[in-house]
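Re-run with default settings, no changes from the original entry. Doing this only to confirm the output is reproducible before filing.
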Amino acid sequence: MKKIIAQAGKELRQFSRDKLTVTLALVLPMILMWLIGTCISLTVHDLPVAIKDMDQTALSRQYVETLGASITFRIVPAAATGPVETPLDQEQARAVIVIPEHFARDLQRGQSPDVQWLIDGTDANTANMIRGDAAALTQAFNARYVANAAPAIQPRIRYWFNPGQDSDKYIGPGIFAVGLALFPPLLVALAMSREGEQKTILQVYVSSIKAHEYLFGKIIAYMIVGIAQWLLTFALGVFLFGIWFKGDPLPLIVSSFVYLFCTVAFGAMIGATIPDQAAAIQAVQNVCFLLSYLLSGFVFPISNIPASIRWISSLVPARYFVEMSRDAFVRGGGWNAVWHVPVILSLLSAAFFVRTWIFMRKMQVEA
């Protein structure tokens, strides 16, 4: 145990001597959280739409005003002549609404006029949102201005956990997990690959310190750095996204320690097996950040990932910590909902640690 503590202390002293590295290690996670948090949004608003009103009645203008009052759409001028799809072709609008002649007369007679929505389908996700908002706003218009327009079934919808449909409550916890998946393993991977690149690792192989003692010392040192990053990014998440614990915070706290151990152990595995700093950086970026960003459920559900590559997400630690973070900050299900997260992270941690230990033990014997 004394050798492990000594190794951890030596690593922290060496890390603290480089003020630039310390500053980047603590500041970059917050910059990443701020950038991704402000750039990514799952809500759409202020989308330009052009309206060609061929009826020009009070009721048709009320329909236009209903659309314009929404935060989703912004009415832009439409040419009185020419093809109706011109605003789409010239990228002046994301949708064109054509209100037919006799729109008001047909409504007053109890008929159903067809209002045509031409939607730009370049961005399929935005197009689906436009279609959903179009249906909701049309239903709201019917309920307010058209007699006997109420459907036979009236759904009463209430959003649980996030009643305001605030996308920050979804994005914030995900960034919290993705940021911690990049920087702690990157730091330890650089430290270990630098020793391999400069051949100073040979001093470790021929010394009396054992492979597991050396690894535990490294991991504990950079876990301490990771805890500092955890505290800073959590404080920024509270300020930036308004996240806070829902229910018992203990599952998140316990899982955070296991998650940090897991990511740092992975970084140690990369640094030990790749004795080149540039290659180690590429490996950590491609595996830790890219896979954590795409295959963790951070942006879109894992069920939407093609089945042929979905299995890879089972090996991505961020997948489980994203689930834990969203439960802790949004749902509040507690241990009953997320007990499996620290268990799976522990298994992944053991796999990464044992793989690194086997490699270093082999090198130590050969030395």
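The chain has a mean pLDDT of 81. The first strand starts at residue 47 and ends at 53.
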